Amino acid sequence: MAAEFLQIHPENPEKRKVEQVVNMLRDGAVIIYPTDTIYGLGCDLFNKNAVDKVCKIKGLKPKSFNLSFICNDISQVSEYTKQINTPTFKLLKKALPGPFTFILESNRNVPKILGTNKKTVGIRIPDNNITHMIVDLLGNPIVTTSIKDDDEILEYTTDPEIIYEEYKHLVDVVIDGGMGNNVPSTIVDCSGSQIEIIRQGLGDIEAYA
């Protein structure tokens, strides 16, 4: 059965439609959704079968999957990470919500859904109303990973209708929240003694340092 193609207003998301997505996530759905950078592929953090499905779509072995998830706010971030030092906390406070993935030390609250203990976790709080409402109504983070395009010129697909045609038999829902960006988030590693930029993307972390 083909996935549902669900149009949701990017600025004023219709709560009824978002609740529909959230209910499907709770039932193990895999969704494609907009962020403030590129479109993401994800599921409920606590549904192992759904996470396995995400890994299969990406062609990854679960144990090699670098776990990243989207949180509602910094308070929720702290539920899944070890104590954040003051400089890092100030950086997160300034930069989020925004186009960044922060790598932080994980704590025991991160579920062992991949069959292995992950010492670090990637955290995102996108500046996107649809994603924010999804995580808020779900009550816990969603696993997130990027959608890669096989085209070497166009690395990230930005048109949700094209995304739907490519993934409609692989996922359960594709959310149309308008055209996406084709630049991914900036990955900032805060798990060590020094803050390190792993990948330069849309966000400029130096502006918040």
TrEMBL record:
Domain YrdC-like: 15-203
Gene Ontology molecular functions: double-stranded RNA binding
Pfam family, one: Sua5_yciO_yrdC
Protein name: Threonylcarbamoyl-AMP synthase
Organism taxonomic ancestry: Bacteria, Pseudomonadati, Bacteroidota, Cytophagia, Cytophagales
